[in-house]
Design brief:
binds flavin-adenine dinucleotide, Uridine Diphospho-n-acetylenolpyruvylglucosamine Reductase, domain 3, 18 helices, Uridine Diphospho-n-acetylenolpyruvylglucosamine Reductase, domain 2, globular, 4 domains
């Protein structure tokens, strides 16, 4: 006989969109970062007790009211394309799979806005809008999988952000279910609810977003791609700084160091060219795209950059979603993502290269310029999650990489669980206090995504975490010959 259900009212509400099947629940125990089970177990209860797949705001509200009555943890999750366990439960409870709230609800062509369900994938939205002559202002390089609300709940910088700003500024209003089960229509600021700005980057800890009103643009009439190769990261940095502040503003400005190209080649996916590469895309009116081409030519001449053929530039754009080809060099990858000043890029990559040499481990660095003078920077290296000890030693290198980013004025981009040891260094004390007060005010019972964002779990307590990471990195360095 089957076990009795833990939460029959939810099964009644959602039918087969509610499950307690151990097999189905097991898929929600991880995100893109593969963590050995033995280590995961030490951090928290990552297996949810049940999975609920609502399709309307009313269903989300009923689930939140039910969770409130029973003090159940609720973890909102969309595509799960984050890597810091942002959408992985730490206290079991209910996993709220929001992929069923998907689609374009309304398009206002006069005011250039679209009402979009929270779980809509960016690539689907962009396709639907382009068919109607419009385009989103920006989207992440995870667009084929990532959802509109998932990116909004993270830091929301990606392709298009340099020209149009981060996603928080593209939201004209939204609908959200608060922790008490109340459905709120939130313009910029609404009484008794978090503001749009406060919800941006809140990582599912303040409310469940069900719909977003997004600002749009007319689909650009023209587009121009360019690819520059540099002899080193110092000249690449100079060109990136120049292009990011010159007019017109590029829609896309992506960089990769030569280690990235080597690792991609090793993985079986050689990039369009070797060396340190800067990919630039302009879009808009034909005159703007032509002016962009002239700007690239001038910047290349001033920084000794070599402009590569148009076909290579077009390929770099076509492959903008495929950075994780690197994983094939794995079997898995570990890494860091930092918010860093473009002026520190060359110094940062030089230090990363030094670490890679000392640890006898190739580390690829790439990223995007997403705001004037600022970039999101990924540093990735291969690892094997099937070998827990080697994995743990490799994990320590993420600590070393963040130390390098901090040294150059950077900070982790996104917190989740794995970056909670850095909270005190990522945010000013007043900002952190304000964030914790907000959490207490809008979710006093700590139902929404508990264990994330505001404080580290016991095992990641900063002083011991730092010492532990440094010790493990030292051990890895001594034993590096046997680890690869
Ligand atoms: C190949 C690749 C490329 C990437 N490129 C970028 C990039 O260009 N820029 C960037 O910023 N990030 C990037 N990321 C990171 C990640 O993809 C993005 O942050 C992404 O937008 C997350 O969307 P998601 O739907 O997967 O959200 P999930 O991972 O499912 O969730 C993210 C967070 O939001 C919360 N959440 C999700 N939906 C809701 C909701 N409806 N209401 C309340 N909370 C919710 C979750 O609890 C979690 O804390 C990339 C990742 C990969 C793997």
């Amino acid at each position: 006989m089957a076990n009795p259900l833990c939460h029959p009212p939810l099964a009644e509400l959602l039918g087969d969109r509610y499950t307690e099947s151990p097999f189905e629940r097991s898929f929600y125990q991880r995100d893109l970062a593969v963590v050995p089970h033995s280590l995961a177990r030490l951090i928290g209860q990552t297996l949810p007790d049940a999975v609920a797949r609502p399709r309307t705001a009313e269903e989300v509200a009923a689930i939140m009211r039910y969770a409130g009555e029973r003090k159940l943890a609720v973890t909102p999750r969309a595509a799960g394309s984050t890597t810091f366990w942002n959408a992985v439960p730490l206290h079991g409870g209910l996993l709220l799979d929001l992929n069923g709230l998907a689609g374009l609800a309304a398009l206002d062509t006069d005011h250039l806005t679209a009402d979009v369900w929270a779980g809509t994938r960016w690539a689907d939205l962009e396709r639907a809008l382009r068919r109607r002559g419009f385009a989103v202002l920006a989207y992440p390089t995870s667009a084929p999988a990532a959802t509109v609300a998932g990116w909004f709940c993270m830091e929301g910088h990606g392709i298009g952000s340099l020209k149009y700003g981060g996603m928080a500024g593209h939201v004209a209003g939204l609908e959200a279910v608060l922790a008490d089960g109340h459905i709120a229509q939130i313009a910029a600021a609404t009484p008794d609810a978090p503001t749009v700005a406060e919800l941006a980057g809140s990582e599912g800890t303040l409310a469940v977003i069900t719909r977003i009103r997004l600002r749009l643009r007319p689909a650009p009439a023209a587009v121009g791609h360019h690819l520059l190769r540099f002899r080193d990261m110092a000249t690449l940095q100079a060109a990136a700084l120049d292009l990011s502040t010159a007019r017109p503003t590029p829609y896309y400005l992506h960089f990769a160091d030569d280690a990235c190209g080597r690792l991609l080649t090793q993985a079986g996916f050689p990039p369009p060219a070797d060396g340190a590469l800067l990919a630039i895309t302009y879009d808009g009116a034909a005159a703007e795209v032509a002016a962009g081409a002239a700007t690239v030519e001038r910047a290349a001449a001033q920084t000794a950059g070599e402009e590569l053929p148009a076909a290579a530039a077009a390929r770099a754009w076509d492959e903008r979603f495929l950075a994780l080809h690197l994983k094939r060099a794995g079997p898995s990858v570990l890494g860091t993502e930092a918010w860093l000043s473009v002026s520190q890029l060359a110094a940062y990559t030089a230090n990363v290269a030094r670490l890679a040499r000392r640890q006898n481990l190739p580390i690829a660095t790439y990223g995007m310029v997403v705001a004037p003078g600022m970039a999101t920077v990924m540093s990735l290296f291969g690892c094997d999650d099937a070998r827990p000890l080697a994995y743990l030693l490799a994990l320590s290198l993420t600590g070393r990489l963040y130390e390098i980013a901090f040294r150059h004025g950077g900070r982790p981009y996104g917190i989740g669980v794995w970056n909670t040891p850095y909270l005190g260094r990522a945010f000013a004390a007043e900002e952190l206090t304000a964030q914790r007060r907000r959490k207490q005010a809008f979710d006093p019972a700590n139902l929404l995504n508990p264990g994330k964002r505001y404080a580290p779990p016991a095992l990641l307590w900063p002083p011991t975490f730092r010492l532990g990471m440094a010790a493990l990195a030292g051990i890895r360095r001594i034993g590096r010959r046997w680890l690869r």
